[in-house]
Amino acid sequence: MAGHIDHGKTTLTKALTNVDTDRLKEEKERQISIELGFAPLYKDDELQISVIDVPGHERFIRQMIAGVAGIDLVVLVVAADEGVMPQTREHLDILGFLGIQNGIVAITKIDKVDEEFIDLVQDDIMGELSGTVFEHAPFVLVDSLSNKGINDLKDLIIHTLREQETRDIKGAFRLPIDQVFTVKGQGTVVRGTVYEGTVEEGQSLKIMPKGIEVRARQLQVHHEPAKQAFAGQRAAINLSGVSKEELERGDVLVSSEHFIVTRTIDVAIRVVEDLDYMVKQRMPIKCHLGTAEVMGRIVFFDRNELKEDNGEILCQIRLDEEIVTKRGDRFILRRPSPQETIGGGWVIDPQGQKYRFGENTISELEKKKVGTPAERIFSALMNGKSLSLAELITRTSLDEERLKEELNHEDFIKIDTKNYSLKGLVEAVEDDLYDRLRDYHNKYPMKQGLNKAELIQAHTNVYPKVLLDYVIDKAVQKEVFQRKDQFFSLGEFSPHVPKNWEKRMEGLLEKLLKDGMKVKYFKDYLSDAGIPESIAPDLKRFLEEQLLVISIDDQYLWHGTVFKHAVERLKVETGSEFEVGEAKDILDLSRKYMIPFLEKLDAKGYTNRIENKRVWNR
Which positions fall inside the Tr-type G domain (predicted)? Predict the structure, then answer.
């Protein structure tokens, strides 16, 4: 019931429901009762209708926003003896901002005026309703004291609501709390309108933004005990796990952590036609969203002030306190002093960032505003790179079922048991890592490749580890990359000596082979071959990795063939074990070669040293 003070909303509610909403006590002993202003009108197997009567000016605004998810129809009450009044116009503005679609106009107190005056009042009302949601609304003439037209109005309400689509109760449960109290013997009770989803008796819930975990001990829907409460219904919930002092109006009761706690929201707003005062950049405002009333500032990106209706405006609200919201939520903005309704609108993105002033920001906000579900998922993943289902629900404001349906599209990839990313991002990351390896191979052709930390080093501040791991694993599976020990390289790559050094390397190996076991310092071979110190470490590592040489110690390296033959000869000419002296006689080596060689045998696992002997590992 909407309308000016004293136009008969409460009396009309009583005539329709036989409940005097001004007479109900706030608390009923040992019961969970529905808040003042809510009265059951009609119920059958298919339909349950209750009237919300909100008689005060400020209270109207708070309760209308709080109950918007439960409002399917508005009865605009206009007294025949007064007609449209200033508060009626403000209520019309607010209803429009809140997205209310269906309306009926009830002209009350018709017994107080003659028929000709009623005709004048109707013409006046029709003029005032032009361009509003009530422009084509049906009129019903009633008098609540004599009951004239009451049955006609009731029948019209029932018929109109029966023709409407039923509510979608899918998605996570959310109830903005508008009252908190205690009932003797039962504890803490909260009331509110279920915004979305379903709650069941015994269900575990959470109070946001405080993060308090609670359980729904008992439920009541419109005075009656219930096992469940659905989107659109008024519910009272007896909670365990929390005291009355811990809760307040504006807190939100939810069934999951998918809802965003935020202080910065990107919004689309409209303002009232006749603003009394200029709305200026970063001006303090009061934002009514859900049951929360939070101070904040309005931030424009394409203007510095606003005095008249300029259509839909894309901007941002920066709040002084945290609220719980999601995309699509409706809100009202009011000037705190002097008090005035500025406008209202809906939340485009509950996780607004800081943007630059200018048309580029407006363009990006426009894209956010009109985005399809797939585009919203795409945008969220472009920003987050890799997100879980819960994070996607939070960022896109899509319910889980719709989100899973959209994620089946080929543009989206599930990269592990719970995280998703974009096909395009995966391909871009693979291309970047491919280029990184290719450039490394060109610069260091004799090295095996890069370890994972080195490979992803330049990307760890841009992409989450789970995405980088997925890309690397998939690239290895496709043989685009290969892995050897801890090193990654391109699939087609093999370490090699640059062509301009090949002959010098071959000459070095020939000299090593010729000198057998009695070699010079390896640095002398490098010097004799004319190999510069700048590539010497890489060449030495390459020769060792390819087993072309074996380092006996830091100074001496044997040709790989020489080492192999020495091992074979020693095996043949000794038994299962041998001593140093025996090995020296067989290989005709001095201690400066013999001891490092035997320690290398131990290191490579050919032998085990037991006291003064070496035992072969057969």
Answer: 1-165
